[in-house]
Amino acid sequence: MKNVLVTGGAGYIGSHTVVSLVEQGFYPVVVDDLRSSSSLILEGLSTLVKDGYTFHREDVCDLDSMTRLFQEYRFDAVIHFAAYKSVGDSCEEPLKYYHNNLLGLINILGLCRDFCIPKFVFSSSCTVYGEPDEKQVYEHTPKRLPESPYGFTKWMGEQIIEDLHRNVVPFQTLCLRYFNPIGAHPSGMIGELPKGIPNNLLPYITQTATGELSSLTIFGDDYPTPDGTCIRDYVHVCDVADAHVQSLFFSDPNPLCFFNIGTGCGSSVLEMVRLFEQVSGKTLPYTIGKRRKGDITEIFANVNASKNLLGWSAKRTVEDAIRDAWNWEQRRNKTHD
Ligand code: UDP
Questions:
Q1: What is the DSSP string of 166-232?
Q2: pLDDT recorded at residue 182
Q3: What distance in angstroms lies between residue 22's CA and the mean position of ligand 1's atoms?
Q4: Catalytic site residue 150?
Q5: Mean pLDDT in the chain?
């Protein structure tokens, strides 16, 4: 069985990837210090995959403990999720973001090189496109400077990887540029677990629907889109997880590849609210507020490369994702009662 190191494997996308990996016959070795997760996710994981994985509570920035881990296991691949991900927080505490996201990446990349790991998968983001000229972005669409320190850590992460590949070809690397992952495992055992008030749209919607939050503020309805609200490419987290497993099967003479991980279709904020109301049967209280600084009007993925080269495409619909997110939120609420 192939050992796969999954850093940040107790996080949102990481935990769903662990489930997909086990289903496909891999043995995930999860490293997570749980600072952005909780034992609830580990319990959910254990229910879903039993002893199909192993867990180490460690910090990827601690080079000594990471080195010990690489000595203990022979990894066939490394999937690196461990990073902070809040745009707003990163503006408040840029040093925390640069330290954690870049040092963690540098540590893991160095160990992959030193221990001759054949495959490395990096969690990147469509934030590397900044505010693009075209709404539909290709992998070759020029990168633009992101708006936030968080975005810069992804932008610089890709740059570090490119520089490492410039002179030597240490291993095959795939940079997966996620669009907007939403949803949860259909079992309701694992899902998104934002700390504090959520920044992202869907957890904000589901927590408003349970009454945890009083009302959703839609950040602006005067954008040049059909209903005036921003458009994003929302993709089911289980599909995102599957893209990582597919990356492990991917073989290509090109040692460094970039793939958009989205559905290829955009939905507006108001469309998401309406869809949620349909799926849940609830009326969502919302108001229209001011635009949020740094929000781009519209972006969605071109998915030709991920479909034709990586051999991956999203199988689940946005409705599926909303239904699964709502199921998870209700279950999580009960667990907390
Ligand atoms: N959004 C909103 N209210 C919220 C959270 C988000 O109107 O409380 C909007 C936001 O302006 C954006 C979309 O929902 O147009 C997706 O935002 P999110 O933060 O989830 O993702 P990102 O902006 O990083 O693509």
A1: HH---SEEEEEEE-EEE---TTSSS----SSS--SHHHHHHHHHTTSSS-EEEE-S-SSSTTSS-EE
A2: 98
A3: 32
A4: yes
A5: 96
Give tens-digit pLDDT for 248-271: 999 998 999 999 999 999 999 999
Whether 18 and 243 have beta carbons less than 8 Å apart is answered as no
Length of the chain measured in residues: 337
In which residue are the tokens 């990894």 written? 75
Taking the C-alpha atoms of residue 318 and residue 272, their distance in angstroms, rounded to an integer, is 9
Q: Are strands 267-268 and 231-232 parallel, antiparallel or unpaired?
A: antiparallel
Residue type, 107: N
Q: How many CA atoms lie within 13 A of 90 on its CB side?
A: 21
Please give the distance, rounded to the nearest whole angstrom, from the Cα atom of residue 178 to the centre of ligand 1: 15
Neighbours of 292 (CB within 10 A): 14
The C-alpha atoms of residue 223 and residue 235 are separated, in whole angstroms, by: 22
What residue ranges define each of the domains in the chain, with the CATH number in brackets? 2-179+236-262+303-314 (3.40.50.720)
Model's pTM, two decimal places?
A: 0.97
Give the mutation target among 127, 268, 271, 292 for probing the ligand 1 site: most ligand atoms within 8 A of CB. Answer: 292
Res 335: pLDDT = 64
Angle between helix 318-336 and 201-209 (nearest 10): 50
Contact 143, 155 (CB under 8 A): yes
| Average pLDDT over every residue of 319-332 | 96
If one residue of 86, 201, 290 were mutated to test the ligand 1 pocket, choosing by the most ligand atoms within 8 A of its CB, it would be: 201
Catalytic residue among 12, 53, 129, 150: 150
